[in-house]
């Protein structure tokens, strides 16, 4: 049974949400109002303890940055939190200094998680009275700065009742976003529990797990063809599980009692591959001191899995075609035709159809191999599978190391779901193993152990955070364009074709824009 961290709301996570940052900016730039969060005990979140409150206007800055008056603000945060819980709905109140505050309780079902509050503003209807209170408070606390204080007070944001309504609506949006995020995390937690219990049941096909629709349809296809003897071509990016699927096909076939043999055709040169596959006779070459059986013979009555088939040379393609057509071959240096009964499964991460069109892969061999095609989706296309895969790898690690299965925090899972996984399942597997190792004797795995590239992932949202929304629209758009282009180029290792595709523009247009902004890859050839 897997247990997840009882996921309290993670303030760090929602602080990073683009929409919350944007709303914070908007509320700040429209009315000079600061937005803060407290937990259920009234502890201010998102700012270092004992520090200022993201103060926006000069009076709030003065009050929160002074050791003398700062404790009053801390008390207000606590008081607001308590009142907000009691009020159950939005609450308009005033702080010790005389500013208005607006708070909304953060509630999940009956559980009170804390509150959001906006403060540092005055309301039109009570502005004179509030300014008087402010004056008195400030004079008492900062007598020496009296001249500046009047100027500060005169420029404070004053909201009409209509604007107070708008502010309330904006805070409600923030609240919704936080609760949505919390719900996503909690749904993940629940599904993680459910997944764990089902790991042995419907979501596995031998050693391969997957509950996403994409993987379920792969499993369906595999079930249909389990009795067939057909040659199968398995396609998919690196690390998507092609070899695992090949093994599963073998295990579920009538050949399961015979050998399952794997040969990576891309890893060795032609001569070596030929002797590996077909064997050699004594004296065929200098070191051939005795006859050696090839993999085709060893796989007789069983299955031979030819990985990276797209990397084979034209002459090797001819030889493979012959075995596939005639079921026979000649060992290197030999003359005798050898007959074998081998089922071929082949895999590639390359686009064989395209290679056929370009003439680099034989069409006849392609059709021989591609009797049935099992196409494995990338992990990016089946993010639903991430939690179940994590569960599988945690369990594998526990079994291998004879330890109790570790618990993984929900924010860790959340971040792993957000990440794009260019290395697919293999990369995810490595990351989980890394987490298990780094957590040492600790039973719990927290997200700060994640690799930087995954820990820091905020997806495209992060891009928008850097845009200055106070300047002109033209500047902001240009800024956004620059940031996105750079970010996509970096992500695609400066491959302009891939970056252009992701950006949805032509390669030529990307090149022109790179020239316009003088973007060049530093220290590497472009
Ligand atoms: N759906 C899955 N369930 C469980 N483990 C998986 C799954 N997919 C991949 N893996 C694991 O991920 C790793 C990589 O898988 P595999 O070697 O089968 O990928 P591949 O597509 O053949 O990679 P390559 O193209 O680089 O040869 C393996 O350790 C495998 O066990």
Automatic annotation (TrEMBL):
Keyword hit for Chloroplast: no
CDD domains noted in UniProt: AAA
A Gene Ontology biological process term: regulation of DNA-templated transcription
UniProt xrefs under Pfam families: AAA_lid_14, HTH_8, PocR, Sigma54_activat
Keyword annotations of the record: ATP-binding, DNA-binding, Nucleotide-binding, Transcription, Transcription regulation
GO molecular function, one term: ATP binding
InterPro entries for the chain: AAA+_ATPase, AAA_lid_NorR, Homeodomain-like_sf, HTH_Fis, P-loop_NTPase, PocR_dom, Sigma_54_int, Sigma_54_int_dom_ATP-bd_2
Record-linked SUPFAM superfamilies: Homeodomain-like, P-loop containing nucleoside triphosphate hydrolases
Sigma-54 factor interaction domain location: 208-437
Name by which UniProt lists this protein: AAA domain-containing protein
